[in-house]
Structures are given as structure tokens and as C-alpha cells.
Specification:
With 225 residues, the chain is mostly beta strands. It has one helix and twelve strands. The protein has one domain: YmcC-like fold, CATH 2.40.360.
Length: 225
């Protein structure tokens, strides 16, 4: 076919597409697997924490990525007395803050995530003078759509059961159960429900909730870390 004929055919096809024909709607890709998140300096998340037993612990706070290294991620939490810092490992698991630590980490998440994956983790929790040995069993049980004040996300539902024991056997031992919804779209857990049950029946059960309020991506001139 001559070049002019080819050009005419292309023009007709383009005209048809513009004038009447339309492309099929995009097909949603089901969430099947999540790799470790990519953190960027300047990215922010705002969370709301509520404690059903002690409302004085309820709070809203912002976490901003301050730095990224091969070892992990440092988050800055703005406050009136100056920023406080929280350290995560490269998978986004809590490692330490000014008042508590998990050694080597809490390992709430272990990537890649997919439905059916399970893992065990051992770590030491320290808060002030209190030290506890913890054994966690976690499993990805489903992909669910979760609504939060920050929006609606497709998320992996991770259920965990943890046994803990400290120096005081009667009051420092127990178990906890938590459900975490990890959304790859924002690289963090966007919702969490947890309950702690001490072995000592004189101590009350505690339940707490965490939910994402806002997510602000890093400035576009920041490079992925």
C-alpha cells in the first residue's frame, strides 16, 4: 500500500476513535502479592490511636520519613518540644523509639506478602525497666478492602498471636492477638485492632485501635530509597 494510503487509513482510524469508538474500561488487577515498601524522604502518614481501657492514651500523630539507610528507616514525629524519632527496619517493622524497643524488630510484616503465607518471629520487647520475651505467629489470611479516613484501600489482612513473658511471671506474662491491614498503595499498615490478655486475672484486658487518617507522598524531586 502506498504511503499516502497508509496515512489516510491511520487518519480514518484516529477519527473513528475520537468521534465515536471508545477504549474498553481498565480492568482492575487483583492484589495477589506485595513486595517490601519503598520509602522516600518527606513521605508522611498521620494516624489516630485509641485505647479502649485508658482514653488518656488516645492520640493523633504524624510520622514523616527523615532518612533512609541500608539498615532501615528513621521517622520523625513532630511535637512541640521538637521532633521525636522512631526507627523501622527496611520492611517497615517497628525497631525502637525513645521509650521502647523491639530486638531485632516486631516483625509484624515479612515480605513478600500473599494469602496463605505464615511465619514465626521471636523478639525482645523493652520499655523502661521492663523486658519481655515474645513469640509471634503470623499469617496472611485474606485480601480485603478497608475504609479509613485516608481513603479506601485494598489490603492484606495479617492475623498474629503473640505470647509474652517477663521477669514477673504472675503479672508480666500473657498473650495478645492483633489484626493488621497492610496496604501496598501507601506502604504502611492502615488499620490495626489489637488485644492484650495478661495471665494474671487481676489485670484487665486491654484493646487498642490504629487507623490511617492521611497519607502524603514524598515531594516529586525526592528519589526512592
Amino acid at each position: 500500500m502506498p504511503i499516502t494510503a497508509l496515512a489516510a487509513s491511520a487518519a480514518i482510524a484516529a477519527s473513528a476513535a475520537i468521534g465515536g469508538a471508545s477504549l474498553p474500561p481498565p480492568v482492575a488487577v487483583p492484589l495477589t502479592q506485595a513486595e517490601a515498601p519503598v520509602f522516600r524522604v518527606g513521605e508522611e502518614w498521620q494516624f489516630a490511636y485509641t485505647n479502649d481501657l485508658d482514653s488518656s492514651k488516645n492520640k493523633t500523630y504524624v510520622q514523616r520519613v527523615a532518612s533512609v539507610s541500608p539498615e532501615g528507616v528513621r521517622l520523625a514525629i513532630p511535637s512541640s518540644g521538637g521532633p521525636r524519632f522512631v526507627d523501622l527496619d527496611r520492611n517497615g517493622n517497628f525497631v525502637r523509639s525513645a521509650v521502647e524497643s523491639f530486638t531485632p524488630s516486631a516483625e509484624t510484616l515479612r515480605f513478600p506478602l500473599f494469602v496463605g503465607k505464615s511465619w514465626n518471629a521471636e523478639y525482645t520487647y523493652t520499655s523502661g525497666d521492663w523486658t519481655s520475651h515474645c513469640d509471634r505467629e503470623s499469617k496472611v489470611v485474606a485480601v480485603e478492602r478497608v475504609s479509613t479516613p485516608a481513603g479506601t484501600f485494598d489490603a492484606f489482612r495479617v492475623e498474629s498471636r503473640t505470647g509474652y513473658s517477663g521477669a514477673a511471671v504472675s503479672s508480666g506474662a500473657g498473650r495478645s492477638y492483633s489484626v493488621d491491614w497492610y496496604a501496598p498503595g501507601v506502604g504502611r499498615i492502615v488499620k490495626q485492632d489489637s488485644e492484650a490478655m495478661p495471665n494474671n486475672r487481676n489485670l484487665a484486658r486491654t484493646s487498642a485501635h490504629l487507623v490511617l487518617i492521611r497519607h502524603t507522598p514524598a515531594p516529586t524531586d525526592q528519589n526512592a530509597q
